[in-house]
Each structure stands twice: as C-alpha cells, then as structure tokens.
Amino acid sequence: MNTVFNRLTAFAIVAVSFLHTAAAQDPIAQTPRNRVLIIGIDGTRRDALQRAQTPNLDALIQRGQLWENTQILGPRETQNDTVSGPGWTSFLTGVWADKHGIQDNGFKGNNIKNYPHLFARVRAQYTDAQLGSFVDWKPIDKYIVSEADKRVCHESHGAEAYTANDQRLTDEATEYIRSSDPHAVMVYLGAVDETGHAHGFHPSVPHYIRAIETVDGHVGSLIKAMKSRRRYEEENWLVLLSTDHGGQGTGHGGGRNIPEIRQTWLIVSGDAVINKDKQQPTYLVDLSVTALTHLGVKIDPQWGLDGKPVGIKSN
Ligand SMILES: [Zn+2]
C-alpha cells in the first residue's frame, strides 16, 4: 500500500513538474511574437518634415500612416513645460505629466517608478524579450530607461556633437538589429532639436531642413538593417516614429498655446497597420501603448496608461 502510494505521489510530482517545465518553455509566453522599432526625433516640426526631402520616411508612410494632429499635451490639465523632459517621459511611459511627475528638464519629483518605461511593461510579461535603447540625450538614459538588455548613451552638448553622435548611435543600433535578436528597439536622435536651437525651428531654415534630411538617412539605415534580418518576413515589425515637441524661433519652452510647438506628428508603419483614419485624434502617449499592443502585452487597467493603440487592432 505504502509503495503504491509513494509511486503515485512520485508520478504526480513528475507530472506536475513536467507541466511547469512545458509552460515555462512555451515560446509564446516567453518572448513576443511581433517586434517594434521606435525612432524618436527630437524637436521636429511637422511643416518642416513636409518641406524636407525624406524618401525613407515617405516609404514608411506608404506602408502605414502619418498623423499630423498629434498633441504633446493631453486633454487633462497638467502643469508641465513643452520641453524634452516631460515630452520623452510621456512618449516612453504612455502617461501624462500629472502621473509621471516630470514637469521640466530638472526631473525633480519624478514618479517613473510607478509609471515606468515601456520596456519594463514588456519585461513583466516576457522575461526573455531582448530590448535595446540608444540615446544621445543623457536624461532619457539616466531617469527613464529601464530593463534594457542593450543600453547605449552618448552624452552630447551642442549641434556638432549631436550630429556626430546621431550617426554613431545609428551605426551601433543597426549593428544590434542585424546581429542580435531584438524584440523592441528605441533609437533617440537629438541633432534636429539642437540645430533648431542654433539656427531656428522653421521650414524656411536650411540648416534645420538639412538636419531632418540627415536623420532621414539614419532612418533608412535602421530600416535596411531591420529588413536584412534572416527572419524579417515572419517577425511582423511595426515601426513607430514621432517627436516630443515642435519649435518657434530658436526655442520651444512655454509653448502650451502655440500650435507649431504643441501639435506634432506620428508615423505608424508595417503590415499590422489597418486603420488609416487621419482624423483620429492622436497624442504623444499613444506611441508606447501602440508598441505594447503590437508586442502582445496585456495592458492592465491598473497601470493607468493614458494612451491608446493607433493604426493597429487593440488586443
Ligand atoms: Zn526636445
């Protein structure tokens, strides 16, 4: 009797541990099926984007959609300035400043622990996901990024340094996309904004337009790397691009009521794009929620995310 009981117990333990192992090795539970490439181009006005020659962005828009009604401030009253700190935090966390707490570039009183970078949301669901972050504005890396497996930051000061580091980051990110197995990649490029501060944010400013055209070349390199992946056709990449604010004169602070600063653009591109309704209202916080949705992350209402998926189906 005892022997039979022991045998049954032993069988039950083996069966249970087998089930656990099977669940742990389920590739769908461990890694996202889909992939995302996010490119953030600081301080890019939508009318300047239209003026510049951007064949790579145009090709992405053809395989998706460009929205030009993207608001960098939400419908809810917030106190934040129209600068990079709150802008990139909203972009990367999917919530407005009254939740993430970043009002300006000082990053004081931040609540990013409770409203983390989208990579942290991916990691919570997919422990094996490969996540890469490439930036040349240091506060993003210092205060916002978490859970990145590959993390590159080149601190930059002045338009020349940003121009050089945008190229360097692009080279490093293309190498990473080609030679690793990333599920989400975020590349931040800062030279357009610095050029705006130095020469003016306006479609009539040649330096500013040239900076956008240079970034378009970087976008082309990143897309080429993505498409060169051996399993590219099966990976269902979604490409997302946007900015954190526009500009006027040589600045963009205090721009809450200035359309050239507060209304920007958003590109969502890939086979998953099914909704091309240009009238749909879009917001800065939609970007990371769209990325999470494409990756198959189940959005918990308790996270309090303010964004929604744009252009693609909700989960
Ligand atoms: Zn900025």
TrEMBL record:
<dbReference type="GO" id="GO:0016787">
    <property type="term" value="F:hydrolase activity"/>
</dbReference>
<feature type="signal peptide">
    <location>
        <begin position="1"/>
        <end position="22"/>
    </location>
</feature>
<dbReference type="InterPro" id="IPR002591">
    <property type="entry name" value="Phosphodiest/P_Trfase"/>
</dbReference>
<protein>
    <submittedName>
        <fullName>Type I phosphodiesterase / nucleotide pyrophosphatase</fullName>
    </submittedName>
</protein>
<dbReference type="InterPro" id="IPR017850">
    <property type="entry name" value="Alkaline_phosphatase_core_sf"/>
</dbReference>
<keyword id="KW-0732">Signal</keyword>
<dbReference type="Pfam" id="PF01663">
    <property type="entry name" value="Phosphodiest"/>
</dbReference>
